[in-house]
Design brief:
With 355 residues, the protein is mainly α. The chain is built from ten helices and no strands.
């Protein structure tokens, strides 16, 4: 019994959709798609506008090409191999494949330029931030200088008051050592000079008092020579000089008082100096000199201890500290921005982005 033969029909592989499917391209997730155009600074807006136009054309092309591929797939997926339709479908497939490759290349180029615009935009934003930061530093430095001047002037104003207090105290002390008082004491001591060595020694002490008074007067004159109003002389330097003079005044005052106290230990001498009106100078000077004591005393301690109105000085000092803190933060921000800019420039180079 003769068997019945059956023929096997072979389909032509002429569907572009089927071909792309084997490449994993026909699915929406893998279909070449133009990226969104990133936002950018105003100076790069013309580049963004050009990319937006190109993207719109690519999106339209993508939709058109999708339609063509689907149509070609519907008409050519089931054609028989070596048939007239197969030849037509193959030619159609080749044309669409060429168009698809051109489209994919255009999308790749577009996406590269969109990425470059994003990187370039970041660079422009970083550079703009750097300019703002540098401007902030410049402004801050100007304000800092103004506050330094204000602080310097406030310090000098306060020191002028302290200088006046010190001079008034020294002048008062000089009044207690008036020449007529010393002369009267000297005359009384001379009358008793022949009585012995003790009175001659006391006369020497009166001569020593005159020398101490002269040095005391020299300290006062030295203080007057400290010109706080002179431009270019820092208040700190004037403060250190005044502090040195205050110590000299204290040393001389202590030496003068030591001589007067020695006189007071002798009842007869005590009566003589009391009659002449000679008094110690240290007690009156003590309150004035107290704020100047100590080598490590600071300007702030001094002004507070002296009870001077230091508000202007302290306010400006606080503003200086604030400005210095702001400047430190600004410099830290500049350092970070500089690193960011270098990283962004490197990205541009690595992406081979055109300027």
């Amino acid at each position: 019994m003769a068997g019945k033969q059956t023929g096997k029909i072979e389909l032509a592989k002429t569907s572009l959709a089927a071909f792309l499917l084997t490449l994993g391209t026909v699915a929406s997730a893998n279909w070449p798609t133009p990226e969104e155009v990133p936002n950018c600074p105003a100076e790069l807006q013309s580049q963004r506008d050009e990319l937006l136009s190109r993207r719109a054309l690519l999106v339209a092309h993508s939709e058109d090409l999708h339609g063509k591929v689907n149509q070609q797939d519907a008409e050519c997926r089931s054609v028989i191999k070596n048939s007239a339709e197969a030849a037509h479908c193959k030619e159609w497939k080749d044309q669409l494949l060429a168009e698809f490759k051109d489209y994919a290349a255009a999308v790749e180029a577009f996406n590269h330029e969109a990425d470059c615009l994003g990187i370039r935009s970041q660079l422009h934003r970083d550079q703009a931030a750097m300019r703002r930061q540098m401007k902030s530093i410049e402004k801050g430095n100007a304000e800092l200088e103004e506050w330094k001047k204000a602080n310097e002037q406030a310090a000098k104003d306060a020191l002028e008051k302290a200088e006046k207090f010190l001079l008034d105290s020294l002048t008062a002390g000089l009044g207690k050592l008036a020449d007529e008082k010393l002369k009267a004491i000297e005359e009384e001591f001379r009358k008793r000079g022949p009585e012995g060595e003790t009175w001659r020694r006391k006369l020497e002490k009166v001569a020593d008092l005159r020398k101490r008074k002269a040095r005391w007067s020299g300290v006062s004159d030295g203080i007057k020579l400290i010109d706080l109003a002179k431009v270019g002389v820092p208040a700190k330097d004037a403060f250190d000089k005044l502090k040195s003079k205050a110590r000299e005044a204290e040393d001389e005052g202590n030496a003068i008082d030591a001589i007067i106290k020695e006189f007071n230990r002798d009842p007869e001498a005590r009566e003589i100096i009391k009659e002449a009106g000679l008094e110690t100078v240290g007690e009156g000077l003590k309150a004035t000199l107290k704020p100047w004591r100590g080598n490590a005393v600071s300007m702030a301690d001094f002004l507070v201890n002296y009870g001077l109105d230091a508000k202007a000085w302290n306010d400006s000092r606080l503003r200086i500290q604030q400005q210095l803190a702001v400047r430190d933060r600004d410099h830290a921000a500049v350092t970070m921005l500089d690193r960011q800019i270098k990283r962004t420039v490197k990205k541009l180079e690595e992406a081979s982005c055109k300027e």
